[in-house]
Amino acid sequence: MVEFITTPYALEDIQKLKEAGSTTVVVGTPFFSVRSVCQFPVDMLTSIKEECVKHRVKMYVLVNRFFVEEEIEALRKHLQLLKELDVDGIYFGDECVLYEADLLGIKDKLIYNPDTLITNHGDVQYYLDDGIQMVTISKEITLSEICTIAQKVNGNCEVLIHGRLNMLHSKRNLLTNYMSFLEREDKVHDNMHLYIMEEKRDEKMPIVEDETGTHIFSGFTLASFEELQDMVNAGIRHFRMDGIFHNIDYVLEALKLYKEVLDGKRKGHETFVEYQKQYEDDNVTHGFYYTKTSKVKEG
Fold first, then answer.
1. How many CB atoms lie within 10 A of CB 113?
2. Rounded mean pLDDT, 45-50
């Protein structure tokens, strides 16, 4: 069975996503989550869990912050809460989450997503053999490399198939410091409408500064309508869609299209071309599926 993992913006979105074909939702919370489409108060997690049970949807929680020493106790308490709620999955990138979850006996709930680091099957298998539930393959490698990893791995792999990609995270308030240097008072903190452009490129890269620092996203929106079936054939069954910078209607529409492609009701290439035209301002592309991010100069 294929798992479509999606991002809700409100409690009532869980039912909408279920009806559209999603099997799992990803929930973010203040402090513990970074780059989540919506941050739900921690005291809402019980209600979210109840809603997920009601609609038979799995609940994953983002705990993808990198923690410093004085934050470890807060992490322990949060993981204890997630254990009591019996959430279905916990995304992490910091190894201390793995250590603390192991102490609590919930290592099998963990999903390792270190962004760019998982680029070979050995790394995937290492973490799966250690007892965690799933590993997210890097989004910066080609389709061929992703499928090769999946074919060699014994266990669960996840791939991000849709949305803006995180390209950089700094704990520094880069935008605020830049405005201070310019002696300007523009509102840049928690502003989701800013972007930067490289001098010799046309792509607009969204940049967001929040309580966890500064985040820069890809100048394109990844769409995988053409590649979905190849990844399924390679053995991948877990596909995540990120709706950051958009809304629930956007996620529901994309989810419907992926379901139709998977069910053979639509052609992947035709769907991609139509979607590219519909969201022209989003610069919809194949991402890195056919382009290596590392190139070797010859001669």
1. 21
2. 98
Could you give the CA distance from residue 214 to residue 208 in angstroms, rounded to a whole number? 6
- Residues 291 and 234: their CA atoms lie apart, in Å, by 19
Separation in Å, CA 164 to CA 71, 73, 160, 209, 245? 29, 32, 10, 16, 8
- Rounded to two decimals, the pTM is 0.93
Exposure on the CB side of residue 267, measured as CA atoms within 13 A: 4
Which residues are paired to 71 by β-bridges? Answer: none
Confidence of residue 245 (pLDDT cuts 50, 70, 90): very high
- pLDDT confidence bin for 250, thresholds 50/70/90: very high
